[in-house]
Amino acid sequence: MVGAGHDFVAETSSTERRSRAIRAARNLLGAVARLLIMADMVDVHMMLANVNKAREIMDRLVTAESKQELCELFGSLQSCLEQVDESIRRRILELRDPAEQDDLQAARAWLKLNTNIMCTASTAYIRHPEVDQVRMNRDFAHSQITQALQAIVDILQGNAVNSDISYMEPSSYNDHLHRPELESLLEKIVSGAAAIADSENTRDERKKRIVDECNHLRQALQDLLTEYEKNCGRAEPSEDLDLAMVHLGHKAKDLRRHLRRAIVDHVSDAFLDTSTPLMMLIESAQKHEEVATVENGKMFQEHANKLVQIAGGKQSRADFAVEELL
């Protein structure tokens, strides 16, 4: 490239030298592109290796038989997950697809949340293996972490996440039967999503996105039903019907993603600092400050109610809305 460039600069009017310089520039650009692709592949391979290592440690955690073994495994798991988290954080900044960014953010937050639950539940199970509830808590945390790791793998490998959406054949469509049924199902989905959007714990930005995605989903369903009506008597479905199906699937996934992020926000905001209200209450009581103790007691009660609300009702409504989308 350097030689061809020098030759062209020495005689810019030469068509042959210009062509050689252009070919050399294209070859250089192609080589740089291949280098960047290879570097990205190496980066992805290293992230996948860390994820697989975390999976192996998780499987060993379930079979740990002593507290010492459990502590050693958790130390290894924490170190491995820190590497995964840092690499995923950098990867999010490099991605151009907002959907993939949100999915990785959700998986990252879900890992952080359930790792502590896994640690607590596993420790409790080592002490009380006869208690079924403790084992169920441990298994639940294990499954949640496994799902989060699998979501990371799917995104890194370019696979679709939760894409198991089925569609009706045009020949089976009955407007009088299926339109009311699908519209009713849609309203149930919107109702569940609205319950999350209207929650005082939902951030304003996320609330707006949920409302927008509900409207987009409504429009996508109407477009799909219109295409079904047009294709009822046809032997082969039209391309517009296929596009409408794909569009509806994308809108459903978008709404599901924002609902998940909203729930992650709820949990992270509620459990970010659970000790401060209690410590303030204890401190004011120790100082015999009656007014401050009453106020801090109210604040502690409100915070405790919020924790119960987040852990119970809000999560169940989110599960309902998300599962309906499938």
TrEMBL record:
Swiss-Prot/TrEMBL GO biological process terms: cell migration; cell-cell adhesion
Gene Ontology cellular component annotations, sorted alphabetically: adherens junction; catenin complex; cytoplasm
Keywords attached to this entry: Cell adhesion, Cell junction, Cytoplasm
Molecular-function GO terms, alphabetical: actin filament binding; beta-catenin binding; cadherin binding
Pfam entry (one): Vinculin
Domain of life (superkingdom): Eukaryota
InterPro entries: Alpha-catenin/vinculin-like_sf, Alpha_catenin, Vinculin/catenin
SUPFAM superfamilies per the UniProt record, alphabetical: alpha-catenin/vinculin-like (SSF47220)
Gene3D superfamilies, per database record: 6.10.250.2510, Alpha-catenin/vinculin-like (1.20.120.230), HR1 repeat (1.10.287.160)
Location of the protein in the cell: Cell junction; Cytoplasm
Annotated PANTHER family: ALPHA CATENIN, CATENIN ALPHA
Family: Belongs to the vinculin/alpha-catenin family.
Name of the protein: Vinculin
Protein's organism: Gongylonema pulchrum
